[in-house]
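Students often ask what a 'structure token' actually looks like in practice. Rather than answer in the abstract, let us consider Cytosine/adenosine deaminase, a protein of 486 residues. Its sequence is given first.
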Amino acid sequence: MQLVEADCVIPDAVSPPLRPGAVAVAAGRIAALGPPAALRARFPDAARTELGDAILLPGFVNAHQHGRGLSQIQLGYPDDALEPWIARRRGRGTPDPYLLTRHAAEQMLRHGVTATLHANYSYATGDYEAELRGVLRAYDETGLRATVCVGYADQGGLVYPPADEARFRAALSPGAQALLAAARPAYLPLDHTLDLMDQLRADYADHPTITLAYGPAGPQWVSDAGWRAIARHAARSGIGIHFHLLESPAQRATADRLYAGQVLAHLQRLGLFETAVSAAHFTQARAEDLHEALRLGLVVVSNPGANMRLFNGAPPLAAWREAGLPVALGTDNCALDDSEDYLSELRLGGLLARGTAPQDPGAANRLTLAMGTETGARAIFQPGCGRIAPGLCADLVAIDPRRARGVWLDPDCDPLDLVISRCTGADTVMTMVAGVIRHRAGSPRPGPEGLARMAAAARQAGPGAQTHAEEIAQALRAHIPGGEEV
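Now compare that with the structural description of the same chain:
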């Protein structure tokens, strides 16, 4: 048993703060919360962690990221429209998925994230199972609570259907065609994917912080047969499904051509919503898509920094909030400031969600907190976290606002306003996952030498690879909306 005491405890987005407050933790879960004196009397033998001026909150939930511990800027290629941006990766070498994910997890813990969803991602090594097991090892070793998606894609890896991929390839130079021909498979065949899920679920059945989910890449990347099989297996196994949805203008145009604009209704017909489902982005959704999302109970994960950096526009969070759509937030490893500072990205999402209608600032901050905690827990299929309440997971973050609470601020200001409006991830003084302190302010960080080696390895590719990848990216730019075919 341990007591975590702070100047203020904010249990959730609805309950009033406790000032001062304490949380009792036992066996990885919340045993009680209340005034420090009362809990000390109730648990006289408990060890005490005293956090002083800190504000204690439920840990933040990064509900969509890919374990990319080094950003594209660090790896040497710039922001671009999504499809050319993806193509530029073909000119880069393959980083170590374990090391990259471990670095991402360590960054998240330092910034107060206690739980995350690792969305589908492959480095196309030709051994997707080994990649995924490296990812799982990274989350296991760091202790970050993670829902890890088993990814799948079987179409649209170069150009989205129904475009003629052979025609697109034929228009490229021999060098670019050779680069594409040398590419190894990114994912496993469908039957192997289902088998891998069964193996991993058995391996991690009793794991305290790791959960499995399916991560079919998105409508334009997965055939109807793939969706049906994954949906059936997920429903039978009781596991969630998370995917990309209407992220870019090109994906919007593809959905219009393939599904007459009725992408969610089409996925429903394939059985997708027979289990818990969340989707990332949704930036290019129209009013009818929003209506369908509400009807189907879809939880959307917004990634505002990534959406704006990759030329997909600012997500209409104010309209979604007004409509009642449940929205969580993820960094997509492409946050506005090119870091894993979740709190800064949450602030951006909260500001976009305010709109122009007059409203109580306190209510706006509470909704922002919910986006980063409770709704995030729904989006990653882990309802046991996201709030501080007896019986729930002991996933806590302590933010010290002393640097933000300058002499110009009223010392009686709303503590949640301090966190949402002024603090950053650098103000995190403690991160606890399942009752274990995984980060304390001042703890050592990974050495820059290792990161530099990882970045250098990822930049290495075959002769001319970057030139040919750039050619493919330019061809895609002409091909996507505004170009010839899609």
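One point worth highlighting: The longest strand covers residues 145-152. Ask yourself how you might have guessed this from the sequence alone, and why that guess would often be unreliable.
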